[in-house]
């Protein structure tokens, strides 16, 4: 037996005598798909799923159905100050933190059907080796340079405060909780010294500035090459290109690639052996190490090179917009400098999925943890709800009513209904066996489904998952229409043979729907296969619209694919529903107040600064209602405020209370009082 050296297919013809035989067929396109590595310092949540995991999984599942040569790699990001910070908070060692969250997140992803080829981790020895080797090449090539740097140092803690050990006000947008490495609010990449009023995240200590020698990567030198390379990317999402252009405009800054920390991968150069490699320099190399781990597991330890060191491979990074700079600028520049690896082909980055208006941010503990969500809902329902509301081009809002509605009105009412009515009818009238075909049935539906599949393919190719899902559900609508138009419940009475033919077609359509839906809701597709009593071998993209089930084939047991759902009473933590006593409630002093003035807070889309009068007292309150009211709508209104709230600063402006408002999804209305009540009245 001889394999083609290029595509590895077994060659069936009689080979010529040469040893190196190149298969005459075109070599299959190779793909490496990555989802952003997950920090192993907390439980993964739905925001992360919407940003980088679900779109990648849908894409990979589609490509596999197509027979493409694709590997899907991801893993836990286990170094950096985020991990050490969590360890300090939980009072355990960093190793305990990474073990706990790596295992938990790996399980959540499996439970949600994220079909990695490997979910590796950066604490693996193989990654340490790969990252050190990568770093050493850059050093040996003379690319990295030493610079004495001013670093923030806490004398109280006797340590340098790098990255997330430091917090302060963002110099770009004024956000007060910007970290030492990045502002989560505006996405700017920062260094600790740029922060205004920096404080230690560990002790609150105000740091001093101390000199320290660091190695630097000359990112500024790569700006022209990066710009030229990115200019050729005509099929990238405009939002991703615009982020990059923005950074080019500001001018790329050289980056320190070493840190004075204990937790991390030690720098492989004697002179700097007490330092570690900056986590954002070694973590992306984790995609390469994970691929090595994958092929080591498969017993082909060198095969990773056929992907990473083959210039035609399409490397695709899925991620949220906060990671664009690392994947579109810094990692490609490092790969250019190194020279041995393929550069990214596309970065279909997503915006944020908001829940209750705020970004699902794991580092702030907002949002819904996947492992908890899966106790309430089937994974496919979550996958469907997120896919149909994916933040592809702008931030989107997520709420549980939408999940329930999509299950009841789409999955159950359209797809589930079609499968159920066909299978129930077949069981009662045709003994649960695929009935015979009939020459009089209308078969145009198969052409329509094939046409739809082509359109869906083109959406997948362009990373338009929402559009692909809409078209997929339209196929299920088409199927219901076919069933209704043919009225099998009447046909069975006066033309049983034709009725058999119609049902035969409907069963073939169920099979096509099973394939079409499988990138989105794979668990349901497995159930469909069970209902059809078939195995995965009939599940390939080219079988869509084909008649795969022979008449006489016995179907399996019917299952209701999507039981009706009700809104859960709670999906958030139990604390939020805890009852309070009247005494506890009476601690909150609510008063009426009149809005005297209202103005926008500079650089903020959401905030207004309001002056209010409550009896004899005047107050200033900063409130996040700017997207819902214009200032003139508010002036003169009698509103309800929390009067005894400790004052706080928002974007540097003091706020002496809180305005009450009702919120549902993206709709917000402030609470006013009925009739002609004066300001300063008690509300209870
Ligand atoms: Zn900022």
Highlighted features:
684 residues; six-stranded parallel β-sheet; binds zinc ion; six-stranded antiparallel β-sheet; Methionyl-trna Synthetase, domain 2; single chain; Isoleucyl-tRNA Synthetase, Domain 1; 20 helices; disordered N terminus; Rossmann fold; alpha+beta
Structure characterization notes:
Mean pLDDT is 90; it is low at 1-25, 362-366 and 570-577. The protein has 20 helices and 30 strands. The relative contact order is 0.09. The chain starts with a strand and ends with a strand. The protein has 684 residues and is an alpha+beta fold. It is globular and about 90 Å long. It has four domains: 30-135 and 278-372, Rossmann fold; 142-272, Beta Complex (Methionyl-trna Synthetase, domain 2); 411-543, Isoleucyl-tRNA Synthetase, Domain 1, CATH 1.10.730.10; 579-683, Nucleic acid-binding proteins (OB fold (Dihydrolipoamide Acetyltransferase, E2P), Beta Barrel), CATH 2.40.50. Helix 16 (488-494) runs antiparallel to helix 17 and helix 17 (496-517) packs antiparallel against helix 18 (522-532). The longest helix is centred in the middle third of the chain and has 31 residues, at 400-430. The strands form nine sheets. Strands 3, 4, 5, 6, 16 and 17 form a six-stranded parallel beta sheet that branches. Strands 21, 22, 23, 24, 27 and 30 form a six-stranded antiparallel beta sheet that branches. The protein is 38% helix and 19% strand. Residues 170, 172-173, 175, 178, 183, 185-186, 188 line the site of zinc ion.
């Amino acid at each position: 037996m001889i394999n083609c050296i290029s595509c590895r297919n077994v060659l069936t013809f009689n080979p010529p005598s040469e040893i190196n035989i190149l298969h005459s067929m075109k070599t299959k396109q190779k793909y490496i798909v990555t989802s952003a590595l997950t920090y192993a310092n907390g439980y993964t949540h739905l925001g992360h799923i919407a940003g980088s995991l679900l779109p990648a999984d849908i894409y990979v599942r589609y490509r596999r159905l197509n027979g493409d040569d694709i590997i899907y790699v991801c893993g836990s990001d286990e170094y950096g100050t985020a991990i050490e910070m969590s360890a300090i908070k939980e009072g355990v060692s960093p190793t305990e933190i990474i073990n706990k969250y790596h295992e938990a997140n790996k399980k959540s992803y499996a439970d949600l059907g994220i079909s990695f080829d490997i979910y590796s981790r950066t604490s693996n020895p193989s990654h340490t080796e790969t990252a050190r080797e990568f770093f050493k090449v850059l050093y040996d090539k003379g690319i990295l340079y030493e610079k004495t740097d001013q670093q923030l140092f806490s004398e109280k803690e006797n340590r340098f405060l790098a990255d997330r050990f430091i917090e302060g006000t963002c110099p770009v947008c004024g956000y007060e909780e910007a970290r030492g490495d990045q502002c989560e609010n505006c996405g700017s990449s920062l260094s600790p010294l740029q922060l205004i009023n920096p404080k230690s995240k560990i002790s609150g200590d105000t740091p001093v500035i101390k000199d320290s020698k660091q190695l630097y990567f000359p990112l500024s030198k790569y700006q022209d090459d990066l710009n030229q390379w990115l200019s050729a990317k005509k099929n990238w999402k405009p939002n991703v290109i615009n982020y990059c252009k923005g950074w080019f405009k500001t001018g790329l800054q050289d980056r320190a690639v070493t840190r004075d920390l204990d937790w991390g991968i030690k720098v492989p150069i004697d002179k700097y052996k007490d330092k570690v490699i900056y986590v954002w320099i070694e973590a992306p190399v984790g995609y390469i190490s994970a691929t090595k781990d994958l092929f080591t597991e498969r017993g082909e330890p060198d095969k990773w090179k056929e992907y990473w060191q083959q210039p035609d491979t399409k490397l695709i990074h899925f991620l949220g917009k906060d990671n664009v700079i690392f994947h579109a600028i810094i990692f490609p520049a490092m790969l250019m400098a190194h020279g041995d690896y393929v550069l990214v082909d596309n970065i279909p980055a997503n915006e944020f999925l908001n829940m209750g208006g705020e970004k699902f941010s794991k580092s702030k503990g907002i949002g819904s943890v996947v492992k908890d969500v899966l106790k309430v809902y089937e994974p496919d329902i979550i996958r469907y709800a997120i896919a149909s509301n994916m933040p592809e081009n702008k931030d989107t809002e997520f709420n549980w009513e939408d999940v329930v509605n999509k299950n009841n009105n789409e999955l159950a009412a359209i797809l589930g209904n079609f499968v159920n009515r066909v299978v129930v009818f077949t069981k009662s009238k045709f003994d649960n066996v695929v009935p015979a075909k009939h020459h009089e049935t209308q078969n145009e539906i198969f052409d329509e489904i094939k046409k739809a599949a082509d359109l869906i393919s083109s959406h997948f190719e362009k990373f338009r998952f929402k559009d692909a899902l809409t078209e997929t559900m339209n196929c299920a609508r088409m199927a219901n229409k076919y069933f209704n138009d043919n009225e099998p419940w009447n046909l069975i009475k006066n033309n049983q043979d034709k009725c058999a033919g119609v049902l035969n077609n409907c069963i073939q359509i169920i099979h096509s729907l099973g394939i079409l839906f499988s990138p989105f809701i794979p668990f349901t597709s497995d159930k469909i296969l069970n209902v059809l009593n078939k195995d995965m071998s009939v599940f390939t993209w080219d079988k869509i619209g084909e008649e795969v089930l022979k008449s006489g084939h016995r179907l399996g047991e019917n299952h209701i694919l999507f039981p009706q759902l009700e809104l859960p009473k709670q999906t958030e933590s139990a604390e939020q529903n805890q009852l309070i006593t009247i005494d506890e409630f009476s601690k909150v002093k609510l008063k009426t107040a009149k809005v005297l003035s209202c103005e926008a807070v500079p650089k903020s889309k959401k905030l207004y600064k309001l002056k209010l009068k409550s009896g004899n007292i005047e107050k200033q309150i900063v409130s996040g209602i700017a997207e819902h009211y214009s200032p003139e709508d508010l002036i003169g209104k009698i509103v309800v405020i929390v009067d005894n709230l400790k004052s706080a600063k928002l974007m540097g402006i003091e706020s002496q209370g809180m305005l009450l408002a009702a919120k549902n999804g993206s709709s917000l209305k402030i609470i006013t009082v009925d009739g002609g009540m004066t300001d300063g009245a008690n509300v209870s």
